[in-house]
């Protein structure tokens, strides 16, 4: 007797603080019925386990796609668990950042469309970045990230962010934190080596490594970063006083955020001078050591302090579910 093929099944790993599960369940159930999918596994994250165990459970039960429903932290943790498995990640954006969804030009404010893409879309392979972080005690921890990692201004800003205010006011909560971080005049003293090149010694206010380039509010921080080129882009912010910060903001907000979006603007950029306060690098691997431990962040989450680290690209190691017309 011929057996009936098992129905496809999804799992949704969700942060209950960010997702209204009661409102989402009937929407997903209707899409499942339309596509003849089995009812999805609903796996709620917790403070003790923000997604690692839930993702492993979904894989053990043989699901066909895992939907990450939460902020950037939930997406990063689920993606880390799916890296190299061949099981695609789908995104149900929630929270204040949604950085990967923004960089993939996915829908941010239409949950039904996001869920429909999760079950009917196509799979796009993208790169992930890995990082080995060594602390002052000599221990090393490995993590993955999807968008950006950094030390300096952005990590200090996150450390200064009021979590309660962030929950209520979103990205407005970072305004106060940025002000506090800018008051810190200490520079990073670091040595870095890009790929197999020579070692450089520099002082910088901030160093950011990225697999993607866009931030909320139309900020294009890393204009040459791409999710599928097997490389990362690095930026060193080295302002000298107020004028240096003006140069950086002009470069990021005007040149990257406005001029690069048109052909005429890109031609104009070609005749502008490079900004001394802003150094861009590109490569596959970066080794950094610092004279003292510094705060480090991955995809918007603080990961404590790093005395040194190595970060590199793992090409095409993650499948992401996108609308079918996006792959044409």
TrEMBL record:
Coiled coil: none annotated. Its cofactor is Mg(2+). It comes from the Bacteria. The keyword Nucleotide-binding applies. Residues 5-135 form the DAGKc domain. Keywords: ATP-binding, Kinase, Lipid biosynthesis, Lipid metabolism, Nucleotide-binding, Phospholipid biosynthesis, Phospholipid metabolism, Transferase. InterPro entries: ATP-NAD_kinase_N, Diacylglycerol_kinase_cat_dom, Lipid_Phosphate_FormReg, NAD/diacylglycerol_kinase_sf, YegS/DAGK_C. GO terms for biological process: phospholipid biosynthetic process. GO terms for molecular function: ATP binding; kinase activity. The keyword Lipid metabolism applies. Belongs to the diacylglycerol/lipid kinase family. This is Diacylglycerol kinase.
């Amino acid at each position: 007797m011929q057996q009936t093929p098992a129905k496809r099944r999804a799992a949704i790993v969700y942060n209950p603080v960010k997702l209204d599960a009661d409102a989402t369940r009937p929407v997903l159930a209707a899409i499942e019925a339309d596509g003849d999918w089995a009812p999805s596994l609903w796996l709620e994250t917790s403070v003790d386990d923000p997604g690692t165990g839930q993702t492993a459970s979904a894989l053990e039960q043989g699901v066909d796609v895992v939907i990450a429903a939460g902020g950037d932290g939930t997406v990063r943790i689920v993606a880390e668990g799916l890296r190299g498995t061949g099981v695609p990640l789908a995104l149900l954006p929630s929270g204040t950042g949604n950085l990967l969804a923004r960089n993939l030009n996915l829908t941010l404010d239409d949950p039904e469309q996001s869920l429909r893409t999760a079950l009917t879309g196509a799979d796009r392979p993208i790169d992930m970045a890995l990082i080995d972080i060594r602390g002052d005690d000599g221990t090393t921890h490995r993590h993955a990230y999807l968008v950006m990692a950094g030390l300096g201004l952005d990590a200090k800003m996150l450390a200064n962010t009021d979590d309660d205010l962030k929950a209520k006011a979103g990205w407005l909560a970072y305004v106060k934190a940025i002000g506090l971080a800018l008051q810190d005049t200490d520079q990073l003293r670091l040595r870095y080596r890009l790929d197999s090149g020579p070692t450089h010694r520099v002082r910088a206010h901030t160093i950011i490594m990225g697999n993607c380039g866009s931030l909320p509010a139309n900020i294009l921080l890393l204009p040459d970063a791409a999710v599928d080129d097997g490389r990362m882009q690095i930026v060193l912010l080295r302002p000298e006083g107020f004028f240096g910060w003006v140069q950086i903001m002009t470069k990021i907000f005007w040149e990257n955020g406005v001029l690069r979006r048109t052909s005429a603007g890109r031609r104009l950029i070609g005749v502008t001078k490079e900004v001394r306060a802003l150094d861009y690098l590109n490569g596959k691997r970066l080794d950094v050591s610092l004279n003292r431990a510094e705060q480090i962040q991955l995809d918007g989450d603080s990961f404590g302090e790093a005395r040194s680290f190595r970060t590199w690209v793992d090409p095409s190691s993650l499948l992401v579910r996108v609308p079918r017309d996006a792959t044409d």
